[in-house]
Amino acid sequence: MSGELERASAEPWRSPSPVATWIGFTAMCVGMFMAVLDVQIVATSLPTIQNSLGIDPDRMSWIQTAYLIAEIIAIPLTGWLTLTLGMRRLFAGSVTLFTIASLGCAVSGSFIELVSWRVLQGLSGGTLIPAVFAAVFVLFPASKQGLATTLAGVLAVLAPSVGPIVGGWITAGASWHWLFLINVLPGILATLTGALCLPRSGFDRAALGRIDLVSLLLMATTLCALEIALKEAPQRGWTSPLPMALFVVCLSSGWAFVARALGRPEPLVDLRTLADRRFAAGCALSFILGIGLFGSVYLMPVFLAFVRGHDALGIGEVMLVTGLAQLLMAPVAVFLEQRANARLLTAVGFAVFAVGLGMSAFQTPRTDFHEMIAPQIVRGIAIMFCLLPPTRLALGHLDAASVPNASGLFNLMRNLGGAIGIALVDTVIFGRAPAIGAALRDQLIAGDLAAADFVGIPAFMVEMQRDVPPTPRAIEMLRPMVEKAALTQAINEAWGMIAILTAVALVGVAFFGSRQAPGGSHPQP
Known about the structure:
globular, mainly alpha, disordered N terminus
């Protein structure tokens, strides 16, 4: 595959002007932003879609799961697709399909129809993130890569933060169809702009006939089985029959895929790139970032909806703080990333991000907007340094021919980290909340004032009931408060878990090897 990539990269490009290149790259970033935003805004309105289409509650989550499965299959294919189609054709084709699928979702009249369009959305949207980060190192010289990485990084991490407020605003002011229709006009503009401004490259038609369909089937089976297993395991139990069967399928097909990929001269996904220690360490950090990033974006709406009772718009207003902190920090990140040691910035970024996650592990059932500002600001400041320097460290030293495939693997690891992180979070919440609730109930009966304060029961009421068996009416009256307090404490434990896992990234920084020069140039001896 590397030989084909080298031949493809050696083909003459019609190089656009620097201004046109930046305009084309911005169009790519807009397409990527649409794809990431789509996941978040749809998540806020699943109940509305369910009621409109008459979908059974136990099938509702498949509206999201179908997209995520298709997306995670498409991400590692980005390298092969870039080789075959060229960056310009891949981007224009992906955004075109994503726009058509968005329109199809908007006009869907049944569950099956909507899920089918969501699969197409995921397949087309999945290539956009790795394509953008590959473009950073293919389109720009080292002196401009910091700014390009920042533009892509800000939009990639901003979308999950602003998604809830955009989805809430649409849900409150319009019908659910506009969750998908808002993609149409930006999609058309991004497609036309990218097609006009991105450099032209050759189209390897022969590669289409050489596609390794067996590897494609094995990879799709592996990732699909893993995604469904992670979705089902927290509620069913990790050792229950369905998740265990899916994990067996995942491992067996995954082993066959790896063996086939390593044994072919032109693999569908070149796993040999992972032999590069710096790239492998970057993938590990990307995986850990996925746990913290996706886990935090998941935990906040769960707490705000089920404990505080906020609607989608209210949740979005609270979460907007993280997005604003990211935007304000972006110029600082560009400045430091061009001048400071990348490994040091990465270590500081993950350390501060872990602290920001840990700060949310002390919430009470009364925690709301004001108490959640400081942790969000800390996380918003840190995220840019968890994304930008590691991306440059992992991809910046690779030759241009290897970057598209490597970018696909790098971004796949972040999505896998997110999927596994959310599964672990759900496991903590579902597994710990009942036990915590029972413990709180016993503590209240025993007159524990600290437990009463956490639940929100005045101390004088506890003193009045001390040594007096609680009546059934009192138990029923306090049940909702105890359940919310138990859920809060379980969520706190989940915050603590992902904070600890994020801190593990500090170990991974040591494996980047040689010292990285500021500005993303090649490592110094």
